[in-house]
Amino acid sequence: MSGTNTTSTTSTTSTTRATRASSYSNILNCIKWSSEKYRTSIEFSMQRLMTLVIRINSTKYTPKAKKKWFEELAQKYDLGPKEVKGGFLVVDPQNDFCEADLPNGSKPGLPVCGSTKIVGPINRFKEHFPDSSVSLTKDSHVSGEITFASTHEVDPFTVIPVTYTLENGDTVTKLEMSWPNHCIEGTVGCELHPDLVLTGNERIYRKGYGTREAYSAIFNTLGEQSTALLDDLNRDDIRIVFVSGLARDYCVGNTALDLAREGFLVVLLEDCTAFVAEGSNDAINTKFENPETRVYSMKSTDILNESYIEPTDRLYPKIGGGRAGSDN
Ligand code: VGL
User: Fold this and answer.
1) Domain contains 30
2) SS (H, E, C) 231-274
3) Closest by Cα among 270, 236, 240 to 253
4) Considering the domain boundaries, does residue 53 fall inside one?
5) Which of 32, 101, 117, 237 is catalytic?
């Protein structure tokens, strides 16, 4: 499945959801416990925890160093290897959401303020992950899309009633934001930003295509599971998901909240996301701020804290057949 678009739809069993939820609450209990024990704030404990998680998952350090960090983490937080398996998700990093003119000289469909600034931090964070734990999503529309303002002949950014037909023939009407045309499949605006460093082996999921709008990378706006992302994360035992991309107030936000509801520990990388419009979707921001929703906001640069890393902990690309670290 690597490097291919996937559109298959399957459902999660309540058992897997319960298992993840319980491993998640184990992580939380440990953080609370450790913050009391070490008299640090929960935020500090979370940051140290995430720094260790990244190092243990990273492709950039020696197995020996990773073992040392895992032991620190296992001792401090009482976590097993499965519980610290991390994945990196980049939501909709597409040309149409970027601020600059597109590579073909045309204007982006739905430019997101500050979007260009996030590409560098995303690339630097991504360097730590093997391709198999990196997922990207692509907003994938057709012209005449159900939530395009042009389809309804209204001004973009007006809220409109949209009627969806369910499989059994019933209809559901929902209020939806109407958008300028964007991310139409086959156009340059739908393509991934050219400055993203990709190998082609990352997992890519299409969302928002067909007769349903989808902001979340897991469920569409009717709550139907619309990608295989959830099943893939689950199958790979990924329990902690670092979320980045565009836009924080829509697709990133809804994805982060859905992942948290599904029992994952979700870390939203503040400096790796940008808003369609600051304050445009206060409901989502309020949910992030609520500790019950379990979405932790942190800066990627704080997590990638490189202090206390010995030169011998690092794996360098082989130059002249040598490397700084040892392999055991
Ligand atoms: C998005 C608005 C409309 C997003 C997609 O990717 O956040 N926002 N469609």
Assistant:
1) no
2) HHHHHCCCCEEEEEEECCCCHHHHHHHHHHHCCCEEEEEEEEEE
3) 270
4) yes
5) 101
The SS3 assignment for 219 reads strand
Measure 77 CA to ligand 1 centroid, in angstroms: 37
Per-residue CA distances from 186 to 93, 143, 181, 183, 244 (Å)? 16, 11, 13, 9, 24
Give the residue among 97, 32, 82 at the shortest CA–CA distance from 244.
97
Tell me the pLDDT of the chain averaged across its residues: 86
CATH of the domain at 270: 3.40.50.850
- Look at residue 8 in the predicted model and tell me its pLDDT: 38
pTM beyond 0.85, yes or no: yes
Atom of ligand 1 nearest to the CA of 253: 7
Long-range pairs of 105-108 with CB within 8 A, sequence gap ≥ 24: 106/188, 106/189, 108/182, 108/189
Number of domains in the chain: 1
Structural domain contains residue 167: no
Give 87 Cα–ligand 1 centroid separation in angstroms: 22
Q: Is residue 176 part of a domain?
A: no
Residues 6+ apart with CB under 8 A from 132: 2, 201, 203, 236
Say whether 251 is catalytic.
Answer: yes
C-alpha to C-alpha distance for 292 and 93, rounded to whole angstroms: 28
Residue given tokens 């296992």 in the structure block: 74
Structural domain boundaries enclosing 280: 4-9+35-138+192-206+213-303
**In percent, how much of the chain has pLDDT > 70?**
84
The CA-atom distances, in angstroms, between 185 and each of 43, 96, 153, 165, 247 are: 41, 11, 21, 23, 19
Segment among 26-30, 102-106, 230-234, 308-312 with least mean pLDDT:
26-30
Q: Is 101 a catalytic residue?
A: yes
Both tokens of 68, joined, read: 């040392």
C-alpha 128 – ligand 1 centre gap (Å): 27
